[in-house]
Amino acid sequence: MGCGTRSELKKLVKQGAIEVNGTRVKDSGLQVDPGADRITVNGDEVRYREFVYLLLNKPQGVVSATEDNRDRTVIDLLGEEYAPFEIFPVGRLDKDTEGLLLLTNDGKLAHNLLSPRKHVPKTYFAHVEGMVGESDRQAFAAGVEFDDGYTTLPAELRILSAGTAGETPMSHIELTIHEGKFHQVKRMFQAVGKRVVYLKRIAMGPLVLDPRLGLGEYRELSEAELSLLKNYGTGSK
């Protein structure tokens, strides 16, 4: 739980800094039940947990990776208390894309959510250059073909506004896709002759971006959110 290395903890035991159920520990080899025993180090309670689940509002300019030689990663945004858990992002968002990103160390849950067989929906909000209209909605509903010949799964396009901003027509939309191809949302609009200039993910499966989270901010999932996510990810009802 990040309280120290084995040798450091042995020193803490010798210093009388560790207590189990109110009793000072004298043997560093003492076995405990982390689910039942109350353990404190220098008076601070240590709460054991195997998995951590974080909801992050990813800002632009940050990469969805655990480490990178050039750019700041989503892991760099987390506090030191999460360092012992070896957290990783579930899937990825492009460097210039904002919004919802799930971070965890639960590999099974991540695998279930990312499995192509699950077709977990992901919803994005975007600013698009061009007048997005009914023909685009129908094209996305049928699946659009990329320049490499791949045809996307049907997607749901919701047009929030299709107007002009200055000399350049600008539309605001929400798009729900059921797969995760590289640069998929941008490539879908490119296939219909339009360009995405701003992109933000607002939902993934049953998980919705918390509007109270500013860019770069995160919080742990609630029990209700985690239950929904686990049920959804495993396909149970």
Automatic annotation (TrEMBL):
Signal peptide: none annotated. CDD domains: PseudoU_synth_RsuA, S4. GO terms for biological process: enzyme-directed rRNA pseudouridine synthesis. The keyword RNA-binding applies. Keywords: Isomerase, RNA-binding. Gene3D superfamilies: Alpha-L RNA-binding motif, Pseudouridine synthase I, catalytic domain, N-terminal subdomain, RNA-binding S4 domain. It is an enzyme of class 5 (isomerase). PROSITE patterns: PSI_RSU, S4. The keyword Isomerase applies. Residues 53-191 form the Pseudouridine synthase RsuA/RluA-like domain. Its EC number is 5.4.99.-. One of its GO terms (cellular component) is cytosol. Pfam families: PseudoU_synth_2 (PF00849), S4 (PF01479). One of its GO terms (molecular function) is RNA binding. Residues 3-36 form the RNA-binding S4 domain. InterPro entries: PsdUridine_s_RsuA/RluB/E/F_cat, PsdUridine_synth_cat_dom_sf, PsdUridine_synth_RsuA/RluA, PsdUridine_synth_RsuA/RluB/E/F, PsdUridine_synth_RsuA/RluB_CS, RsuA_PseudoU_synthase, S4_RNA-bd, S4_RNA-bd_sf. Belongs to the pseudouridine synthase RsuA family. This is Pseudouridine synthase. It comes from Paenibacillus lutrae.
